[in-house]
Amino acid sequence: MATAVLGQDERPLVAEASLDFLVVEMVDLMHRSPTDTEMDKEAAYFKLENLGYQLGMAMVERITKDRPRFLDNLDVVKFICKDFWIALFKKQIDNLKTNHRGVYVLTDNNFRWFSRMSGDGAGAEISRQAFAHLAFPCGLIRGALGNLGVTTVVIGEVSTIPQCTFQIKIAKP
């Protein structure tokens, strides 16, 4: 059985499919409301992002427990692209770009939580529906970076399914 989260002795804690379905249902539940105002959508986004933040903080604690401290922000972001993403999705981020002024763009060409996604309408409508599913992973990234001492703003973008990008802006101290 493949796993999404590994424990200290590398035994499976959560099956990948279970985690995938949990995330899909969590997003659906947060966005299901009697009224469909922008304020409700925004509140759902922040709830999902906060859940991801808390999980990201806890996960990075486990993953880095035996590692030496990181030297700079680029090393921390590289850790997110490699080790943290592998722990979550069994693959590395496909592309990392930076402007060397505190902005990093991470691209996942085949984001696993979008791989089973289907929707009604044209590509723009599907991308809009997929955007709701980016709050949780944005929180995961922000929480992981926060636990490593890097204060950030993380913005997710979807142009075509299953590709997505995460823009990380590091706050100035």
TrEMBL record:
Cited Pfam families: TRAPP
Entry GO CC: cis-Golgi network; trans-Golgi network; TRAPP complex
Domain of life of the native organism: Eukaryota
CDD domains the record matches: TRAPPC6A_Trs33
One Gene Ontology biological process: endoplasmic reticulum to Golgi vesicle-mediated transport
InterPro entries: NO_sig/Golgi_transp_ligand-bd, TRAPP_component, TRAPPC6/Trs33
PANTHER family xrefs: GEO08327P1, TRAFFICKING PROTEIN PARTICLE COMPLEX SUBUNIT 6B
Family stated for the protein in its record: Belongs to the TRAPP small subunits family. BET3 subfamily.
Protein name as catalogued: Trafficking protein particle complex subunit 6B
Native organism: Powellomyces hirtus
